[in-house]
Amino acid sequence: MSETILEVHHLGKSFGSHEILRDIDFSVRLGDVTCIIGPSGSGKSTLLRCMNLLEVPSSGEISYHGADIMDKHMNVPEYCSRVGMVFQSFNLFNNMTVLKNCTVGQEKVLKKSKEEAEKNAMMYLEKVGMAPYINAKPKQLSGGQKQRVAIARALAMEPEILLFDEPTSALDPQMVGEVLEVMRKLAKDGLTMIIVTHEMAFARDVAKHVIFMGDGVIVEEGTSSDIFDHPKKEMTKEFLSRFRNS
Predict the structure, then answer these.
(1) How would you list the strands of the sheet with 59-64, edge to edge?
(2) Residue 160 needs a FRET pair 20 to 30 A away by CA distance; which of 100, 105, 188, 191 works?
(3) Contact (Cβ atoms closer than 8 angstroms) between residue 218 and residue 212
(4) Rg, Å, the chain Cα set
(5) Which one, of 136, 184, 156, 119, lies nearest residue 167 by Cα?
């Protein structure tokens, strides 16, 4: 059995008196593809943002290889370089070329030479089909192309885990497929991924582990078959029935 690399224990997050997450528990093993599904407003994106410390949890613990990521001795920049993030809005640097977007983090955070960073970036831009666009600026790209660059940029940091926050929600329908295809290939390559998504067919086909969230808690979790074929909770059944009937 593969090793557990990330564990979430009794995680909670509040903004003032508004409780967003309550008592969240789950773990991620090396090579897992974990899809987090559920209605809008259920806390999925907040959970992901807590996992890479874009939001500071209000309670509970997240441990990476057994170390509490909120411990004062934790090297947070190093942790964040090991747990990458792909955002729904791409978050590319608009004043930089595609290639520069994929090298700047390597040079500044990983302290790679320009030559090494460019070689590594090109490998991942080839992987996502964006090598012909290295001199383009983001404004010259479609939404699907921008998201593929964002994925290459995250991969170039060589993370152990890659988090995806609704990576297709800002895309036109015809561009969704090209991004999901890249993610399918990454899953086949064995990359450990945690994906917040509304793409139910993708989650069903690709996920090893599915978490269904509602109202800030984990309602139900299990294998893809457990959740999609044999859901136990009424809330899960109702949510999935809407997708089957849409």
Answers:
(1) 18-29, 4-15, 59-64, 67-68
(2) 100
(3) yes
(4) 18
(5) 184
Sheet holding 192-196, edge to edge: 83-86, 161-165, 192-196, 33-37, 209-214, 217-222
Distance from the Cα of residue 93 to its chain's centroid: 19
Distance CA 121, CA 153 (A): 7
The two tokens of residue 146 are 């921008």
Segments of the chain with pLDDT less than 70: 1, 244-246
Q: How far apart are CA 74 and CA 65, in angstroms?
A: 12
Output the pLDDT for position 170: 84
Q: Which residue has the tokens 């069903």?
A: 204
Q: Six-digit token pair at 157?
A: 């940091």
pLDDT in tens, 146-191: 999 999 999 999 999 999 999 998 888 888 998 999 999 999 999 9
Q: In this prediction, what percent of the chain has a pLDDT beyond 90? A: 86
Entry pTM? 0.93
Token readout for 164 is 């995806």
Distance CA 122, CA 134 (A): 8
